[in-house]
Amino acid sequence: MNRSLIAACVAASAALLSNPALAQVTVKDAWVRATVAQQKATGAFMQLQSAQEARLVAAQSPVAGVAEVHEMAMDGGVMKMRALPSLALPAGKAVELKPGGFHIMLMDLKGQVKDGDTVPVTLVVEGKDGKRQNVEVKAVARAMAQPAMKHEHGHGAHKH
Ligand SMILES: [Cu+2]
After folding, report:
1. Which residues in the chain belong to E strands, given as ranges?
2. Which of 12, 76, 96, 144 is the most exposed place for a label (fewest CB within 10 A)?
3. CA end-to-end distance (rounded Å), the chain
4. Residue 5 alpha carbon to ligand 1 centre in Å
5. Tens of pLDDT along 52-89?
């Protein structure tokens, strides 16, 4: 019924696919953490929702030599990051990629990602039937403070 609305939210290439059996994937609030000069990696974050059960199996971006689906999680009190072979997208359920959780890791960056840049990211989503579709995402680069790396230092903090 609101198919046109869904299609409008899906990236251009997905909307152009003629096979209506393919999973409809909506992407919301896509952003990439802006980098400083010489920084080689960053993360892309967004909310994904697939109409049918599907999996996010790969990602690509022209700004990065390598893009992987990653998960960040506490492991024995240490924050660890690992590559996932795929990320499940349950039917009709929003899956959030956010700092400290799932993310698209963009590595081997070809240049600085500046605040306000538009970063194209292609997601490869595989349906239950094994059919793959590309979902084109335009993520906006945002300079974000990293709260985990900020430490409050009083004047007495540098004593040894
Ligand atoms: Cu990562």
Report:
1. 25-33, 41-50, 54-60, 64-75, 78-83, 87-89, 94-97, 102-109, 118-127, 132-142
2. 76
3. 67
4. 32
5. 999 999 999 999 999 999 999 888 999 899 999 999 99
Least Cα distance to 14 among 6, 92, 94, 59 occurs for 6
Cα 55 from Cα 72, distance rounded (Å): 18
What SS3 state is found at 2? Answer: coil
61 alpha carbon – ligand 1 mean position (Å): 15
Residues with Cβ–ion distance below 5 A, ligand 1: 70, 81, 105
The alpha-carbon radius of gyration of the chain (Å, integer) is: 18
What pTM value is reported for the model?
0.76
